[in-house]
Design goal:
The protein has 389 residues and is α/β, with parallel strands linked by helices. The protein is built from twelve helices and 18 strands.
Length: 389
């Protein structure tokens, strides 16, 4: 007698945030028949943009109401957090308290590893900082260092740039302007000889040559994040890449107080300079629909292997996709999160607690799953291993 095989129901996923990265994440996940996708945001236009051409349900919702977020996610099997950084930690906490597995790329200023005990207590798998950098950069830096018998240094260089350079900043962003300002104001932490060093963001500018692009400038930024605590490599640093001249222009704004969060009286009204600056910068820096961009990332790990000096390099050079019209930075950031969702949904990654992206490097199968999936999505990391003097 034949037994009836029940059809497995799609996993219900909710994406919190319909911005320039959250939107493409929801759209890409909706292409998989194994998933039933909903997206939530306060911005009705952003929601309509996602749902117009994709099988995604939408909810207009204030994601800063953390108590309601906890109730919102309760009926879903997995959560993707794509909220702005200032909301990230509390939204992540709400999802964990709701007992929901979560993939997070909100890039909050707080240390998400502080929620590890809470996640374990609630039986939650939470992969955080799972974007491009932090994200894939952490994962590949850890994996490259594991290839060496004695890793000595890691250097990460990364930047998203518009193809067309325009005055005054020669830069466009696919994420919140407040989060961008954080990149210019948050002190940069890096490791030198096993010791933590802290310097101002935008410091130690150097020129970097990128094949096919030319000279870019690299500056200190706080991109190592969890690697500082999780990876035991004596020298580690992350630098952000921009077109030459960008750093000086931003330094002028920062040093003149335009990024200050301290309230001041102007025209008889109490304002924070950062809020005014963000309001002014957003129209200038927000990338337009269809505007071409590119993403560059280089991860360099050096050390010894079998008694010889060795350098392991991962290179990414990605461009705007004219067919999907999705920006390169949105794809390289968001699709890393998409692959992490598929990793958890497949049951390949079941580590309870809060995981940094570098934890995935502990299992070569996870690395290959992520990288092969990204290749299928047109995002290719080139590996080079060489002996050095």
């Amino acid at each position: 007698m034949k037994t009836k095989v029940e059809k497995q129901q799609p996993l219900r996923i909710i994406v919190l945030g319909a911005g320039l990265v959250g939107g493409p994440v929801a759209a890409k996940l909706s292409e998989d028949a194994k998933f039933n996708v909903t997206i939530a945001d306060i911005d009705a236009k952003a929601l309509d943009k996602v749902t117009a051409n994709h099988k995604v349900a939408s909810l207009r919702f204030d994601l800063s109401d953390f108590k309601r977020v906890k109730k919102l996610v309760a009926s879903y099997g997995l959560v993707v957090s794509a909220v702005p950084g200032h909301l990230g930690f509390m939204v992540l906490k709400a999802c964990i308290e709701a007992g929901k597995n979560v993939v997070d790329f909100s890039f909050q200023a707080e240390n998400f590893l502080e929620l590890d005990a809470l996640a374990k207590e609630n039986g939650v798998v939470a992969i955080c900082d799972m974007g491009l950098a932090p994200g894939t950069s952490n994962m590949l830096a850890a994996y490259a260092s594991s290839m060496l018998d004695k890793p000595e240094s890691i250097k990460i260089l990364v930047g998203g740039l518009p193809v067309r350079r325009s005055w005054p900043f020669e830069y466009k962003a696919v994420f919140s302007p407040i989060d961008l300002v954080e990149e210019y104001t948050r002190p940069a932490r890096f490791m030198v000889n096993g010791n933590l060093v802290v310097k101002p963001a935008l410091s130690d500018v150097e020129n970097v040559e990128i094949e096919g692009l030319g000279t870019l400038e690299a500056f200190n930024s706080d991109g190592l994040r969890s690697l500082i605590y999780t990876l035991k490599v004596p020298d580690m640093i992350e630098k952000t890449l921009r077109y030459p001249g960008h750093v000086l222009r931003v330094q002028v704004l920062r040093d003149a107080g335009f990024f200050s969060s301290e309230p001041m009286i102007a025209g008889g009204v109490s304002v924070r300079p950062i809020d005014v600056t963000a309001k002014l910068l957003f129209p200038i820096l927000r990338i337009d629909d269809g505007e071409e961009d590119l993403t560059v990332m280089r991860i360099i790990a050096e050390g010894t292997k079998d008694g010889k000096k060795q350098r392991i390099t991962y290179d990414l050079f990605d461009t705007f996709d004219p067919l999907t019209r999705i920006h390169s930075m949105a794809r390289t950031t968001g699709y890393a999160a998409v692959m992490a969702v598929k990793l958890v949904a497949s049951g390949m990654y079941t580590e309870k607690g809060v995981s940094a992206p570098e934890y995935l490097a502990r299992d070569e199968k996870c690395i290959e799953f992520i990288l092969s999936g990204l290749r299928e999505l047109g995002i290719n990391y080139k590996l080079k291993v060489e002996e050095i003097q």
